[in-house]
């Protein structure tokens, strides 16, 4: 265990590669009471110095798309295991999705139950999204006042019966309140119609084959949903966020919508940027997610979307389940769809980003600054800058990493990345000036808090 101590009045983190909003440079980051008070060329006299040498000093990563599943499905994950995995992966902030817990976070009462479940269990800071489901329109504004950072909805069956998908009529009933709140609406953008039509054409197909599953969730399901959402955004002028974009074919319409000035942001995920359909074996249900991992050519299109800025950020969509629910070696239509990656996401992203000529500044923008802005936390986290929380990651970008089960700190050691050689190792994660994770060991006691409690 790492001894947890309150920082002295002033401490200083030094590196030859401090990743600031202006670029990477040698710097000394001065911290007082858990907050960055200066970013200087050299450490001031009298401060306690933590010298990270040539290892990069990144801002703490922010993951706005995490399924913690507690309360109610803690056997799937939970605040303790999810936030430990986050700390080991360089994340200092996670935002929990509202659908896999029981009760679902669709009312203030259910939010309070979640808060009670999280108390004293978190190794990193957290916040909650609320849910927008059929019939909960009257709860939208109370949830905002109670501290959710925005809302999540599904246009297709989400996999859990208690969190309903929302139809067009109910969504339009909710949108005036969502727009009034000023908070973003995060949408799983697939429509059921194209999926049903595709599945009808697959009668008698072998569902052990990944090609069958891929054909069952066609690009059109995403494209039709995104076109529908752009129209609603134009009408109601709410903040629209497209989660886990998997098809690069949507980029032209998203580019045009952004050029029009519509308040739209877009995320994709490490698995869409690293994996490809061509490499997924039949029966390899550990790769199942929705929307599905598409072709290698599509993957490169998503990278171009990041390069251009049409895609704003990268989130994990950490969605674990008990191993038996993945139906290993079995049918894709019977397996749970979700990939857990909190402990590996930074290495996955850096491996792919570096190979394409991107920098650590890009990683910090995609995985810290832009997610913090989406969540409305940019005044507190997301950058190495004066006034932000002293949330840091010590990252060795040139170190090799072979992914084994002991690298996965979430509850169930299931991952499509097992056996892969990646680049970049998280050595230390600092939360508000105090190490939460250091050289493979966790802090003595969980000090993570909900952002609603942090001034």
Task: Walk me through the structure.
It is a single chain. By secondary structure, the protein is of the alpha/beta class. It has one domain (60-382, 398-421): Metal-dependent hydrolases (TIM Barrel), CATH 3.20.20. Helices cover 29% and strands 22% of the residues. It is built from twelve helices and 18 strands. Strands 1, 2, 3, 4, 5, 15, 16, 17 and 18 form a nine-stranded mixed β-sheet that branches. It has a six-stranded parallel β-sheet with strand order 9-10-11-12-13-14. It starts with 10 loop residues before the first strand and ends in a 13-residue tail after the last strand.
Task: Describe the structure concisely for a colleague.
The protein is α/β, with parallel strands linked by helices and 455 residues long.
Give the integer mean of the pLDDT values: 96
Biggest β-sheet description:
9 strands, mixed
- What kind of oligomer do you see? single chain
Give the total of domains. Answer: 1
Q: What separation lies between the terminal Cα atoms?
A: 28 Å
Q: What share of the residues does DSSP label as strand, in percent? A: 15-25%
CATH superfamily: Metal-dependent hydrolases
Give the name of the CATH architecture: Alpha-Beta Barrel
Pick out the low-confidence regions: none
Reported by name, the CATH topology is TIM Barrel
N-to-C series of helices and strands: EEEEEEHEHEEHEHEHHHEHEHHEHHEEEE
Number of helices: 12
What general form does the structure show?
globular
Percent helix among the residues? 25-40%
Keywords: Hydrolase, Metal-binding, Zinc
InterPro entries: Allantoinase, Amidohydro-rel, DHOase/Allantoinase_Hydrolase, Dihydroorotase_CS, Metal-dep_hydrolase_composite, Metal_Hydrolase
Domain Amidohydrolase-related: 57-433
EC number: 3.5.2.5
